[in-house]
């Protein structure tokens, strides 16, 4: 059996409909605090982000996740502060590909790239308290649950607790060794 070929590719305007469809899946709507959006607003977000980490002015980054030539998800990193050495990440896969370790691999690939910035000290993310897959992914990649913002999310008419998770550079180095991402 061959290992599926998982790659990150830059998010492009042509990916907007796939991204919209993923956001519209019931599992995404149930677990993510998605603000109302339009095709135009998502296109603008793609156009305002880049996958070029060498761009000194960029603060918002987005990749699509490609499996054997098919786009199956997206990973973003936003609100980079070069001064503070921190960035926030977010991620989503199409539900047909959940629970196969692909989310962990794709986000791991993004972390690998982000920590190439020598100034980066910390990556953080938020997730709903009932999003067990996202929490499993975060834990596997070495993140620590740092706190809870009570009833911070409003999702499908319900208030939900928001968890904040953080990953320091030293913790990433330990996690990537245990994930065998590096020698
Ligand atoms: C969150 C998401 C990206 C995770 O990706 P994934 O490929 O499904 O997750 P993985 O298969 O890599 O699983 C990571 C860990 O979480 C655990 N996990 C996965 N799905 C789970 C579930 N439904 N319930 C409990 N644990 C789960 C896995 O067991 C795994 O740990 P293990 O390898 O030690 O068993 C994906 O499920 C998704 O896109 N969900 C909808 C959108 C979303 O919630 N995005 C995140 C918003 S914060």
Automatic annotation (TrEMBL):
Residues 6-161 form the N-acetyltransferase domain. GO terms for cellular component: cytoplasm. GO terms for molecular function: protein N-terminal-serine acetyltransferase activity; protein-N-terminal-alanine acetyltransferase activity. Pfam families: Acetyltransf_3 (PF13302). It comes from the Bacteria. PROSITE patterns: GNAT (PS51186). InterPro entries: Acyl_CoA_acyltransferase, GNAT_dom, Ribosomal_N-acetyltransferase. CDD domains: NAT_SF. This is Acetyltransferase, GNAT family. It comes from Archangium gephyra.
